[in-house]
Amino acid sequence: MNDLLKILTQHALKYPLMEPADAVKLIYQNEFGSGHFISDKEASLIRLQNEYQTVIQKADIPLLEDIGNGIARVNLAALDINGLTVELLNDIFVASSGNLHRTKNSFIRKLNILKKLTREGLFKFDIHSLQTYLNEYISLDYPPVSHSRIYREAYKPAYRVICKSLIPEKYLSQ
Q1: Nearest to residue 148, comparing CAs of 125, 114, 122, 115?
Q2: Looking at residue 98, what is its pLDDT?
Q3: How far, in Å, CA of 14 to CA of 154, rounded?
Q4: What is the pLDDT along the chain (174 residues), one digit of tens a residue?
Q5: ∠ at Cα 160 (3, 44), nearest 5°?
Q6: What is the predicted pLDDT for the residue at 75?
Q7: What is the distance between the alpha carbons of residues 145 and 161, in angstroms, rounded to a whole number?
Q8: How many angstroms separate the Cα of 115 from the Cα of each of 122, 125, 143?
Q9: What is the DSSP string of 6-53?
């Protein structure tokens, strides 16, 4: 769980406009990866290619953003500079989608860490906002989460969640 403390602290500093949904999404991905089993590799590739075409490539963005638990977000804006093709990323993403078998109980323990850190003032949102969000979220039985509108507008997230163990070594050191 120390890994999660470090990840949440890093993200709170890097993304100060995070909302409760964004923090829960980060924890969800830390526990379950993308949260989706990809059964249609070709459809996944088409979605990825379409999203990739909308992203401006940047030299100053890291290819991988570690989110703990052996999971990383691969930034689409860093593909070209790092020589990672959309096709290879899709292969890794699809393989990652069926590779994690973590538990709801572990996820719930991680949400409790989020509550503790929120009470301590780590995030710009307060415990009341988080608890209100969690009440609704839990009533839906812990589904995958989308980024908040504020986060999407401020940070323009475009990534795929992968198991770091599946990415070729040459991309881990970049």
Answers
A1: 125
A2: 72
A3: 12
A4: 679 999 999 999 999 999 999 999 999 999 998 867 788 999 999 999 999 999 999 999 999 999 999 999 999 999 999 999 999 999 999 999 877 667 899 999 999 999 999 999 999 999 999 999 999 999 999 999 999 999 999 999 999 999 999 999 998 875
A5: 145
A6: 98
A7: 13
A8: 10, 11, 18
A9: HHHHHHHHH-TT--HHHHHHHHHHHHHTTS-----HHHHHHHHHHHHT
Per-residue confidence (pLDDT) for residue 39, from 0 to 100: 82
Using an 8 Å Cβ cutoff, are 8 and 117 in contact?
A: yes
Q: One-letter amino acid identity for 82?
A: N
Rounded CA gap, 29 and 93, in Å?
13
Cα angle 128, 132, 135; round to 5: 135
The label of the residue with tokens 């163990």 reads: 165
Q: Which residue, 174, 4, 147, 151, is CA-closest to 74? A: 174
User: How far is residue 32's CA from residue 112's CA, in Å, rounded to a whole number?
Assistant: 17
**HSE-up of residue 147 (Cα within 13 Å, Cβ side):** 16
pLDDT of residue 102: 75
Evaluate whether 148 touches 140 at the Cβ level (below 8 Å).
no
Long-range CB contact pairs, 102-105, < 8 A, 24+: 102/31, 102/32, 102/69, 103/31, 104/142
